[in-house]
Amino acid sequence: MALDRLFNVARKEFSDHITSRRFVIILGLFLVISAIGMHSGIETYNTMLESYNLQLQHMQDLEGPYAGWMPEKPSIMLVFSSMMSYMTMLGGILAIAIGFDLVSKEKETRSLKSLLSHPVYRDEIINGKALGGVGALGFAMALALAIALAMLLLFSVVPTLEEFAAILVFGAVSLGFLLAYFAIALMMSTVAKESGNALIYTLVIFFTVSSLLPMFGMMAANAFAGDPPEPPQMPRMPQEVVRTSSSGGYFTTSVSQSVVHGGTEDPEWREYEEEMKTYIEKRKLINDISNLLSPQSNYQTIAIAVTQPQIFSMMQSPYDTTPEETTGLAGALGKVWMNIAALIVFPSAFFAAAYVKFMRMDIR
């Protein structure tokens, strides 16, 4: 009986969401821009596939040390990496639009008191509203993935079983990202007395965790890691570029290869390279810890691990010049388990706070 009341509230909220003009407009804009990004990604994939086929044709003519070398076939998951940038902005706006007035609107219209006069309890109301919002976001994400798969088939691109599993994981991670901002909006809706204030509070938190936190993480990394080590004053060999992760991208640091004199490595350069390696790893550790508080940074890290595992490997092991063996989808997810846990804990904490606040709310 309690579950029936809960699902009745959730069903009503879900219906209100998907039929509202605000939801339809933002969803339509999100789907159109995602489709444009998918089209561009498919063209890039086809170009890379043509280059791969040409390289295969030339493999037969290779001799000497390059004989037997095989190029890496491009994955269609590159296509979905273009959706990540649109998801972090338009997806977050869609999630906020669903949640910011779920409770505050009831306060303004004074309908909560009349709603509670029916045989329905407070926990069923707040849980039903949350489930209805989650269902609406799940509907939006399923629709976006369906359009993406339809476009792939339209261009005669058929995913393998492993790629299809990776697409589903990407969709689930994207939904988790949307739930993070929906939970913030729901929490602010229970705290604020008016929907306008709830929207402002939510946007402030959105800007803080998506932009300010990663920026503060970089500042903290610079402060705690200190200045980079100074290279020895002597001639050096050509430099190599080291890629390491930062908030939402990469930065490059020049690290010289060891100077060789008479067939032996110069000890000063070897010491400098070890110090530089320690310095970059320390920066990365501090930056990664601060980014765990940002749903956007967690989402980008997980999405890159799923869609672009080679780039993710370079981010995690900037000094490893040997190609890393492919560990598959499970291996990629195992490397980002902390980010996955953070993406689960973040919305759970805000949902719990919204639940407690609503249960103790004075409705008069």
Sum this structure up briefly.
This protein is mainly alpha-helical. 72% of the residues lie in helices and 5% in strands.
Structure overview:
There is one protein chain. The chain has 364 residues and is mostly helical. It has one domain (3-230, 265-359). It is 72% helix and 5% strand. It is built from 13 helices and four strands. The strands form two sheets. It has a two-stranded antiparallel ribbon. It has a two-stranded antiparallel ribbon with strand order 3-4. A hairpin with a 2-residue loop joins strand 1 (239-246) and strand 2 (249-256). Helix 3 (77-99) runs parallel beside helix 7 (161-191), helix 6 packs antiparallel against helix 7 and helix 10 (295-307) crosses helix 11. The longest helix is centred in the N-terminal third of the chain and has 38 residues, at 21-58. The radius of gyration is 25 Å and the shape is globular. Mean pLDDT is 78; it is low at 236-264.
Query: Beta-strand percentage?
Result: 5-15%
- Characterize the overall form: globular
Tally the helices: what do you get? 13
- The percentage helix is over 70%
Cα gyration radius (Å): 25 Å
Mean pLDDT metric: 78
The unreliable regions are 236-264
Say how many strands there are: 4
Specify the biggest β-sheet.
2 strands, antiparallel
Widest sheet, order of strands? 1-2
Backbone structural class:
mainly alpha
Keywords: Membrane, Transmembrane, Transmembrane helix
Transmembrane segments: 21-42, 76-103, 131-158, 164-186, 198-225, 336-356
Protein name: ABC transporter permease
Pfam families: ABC2_membrane_2 (PF12679)
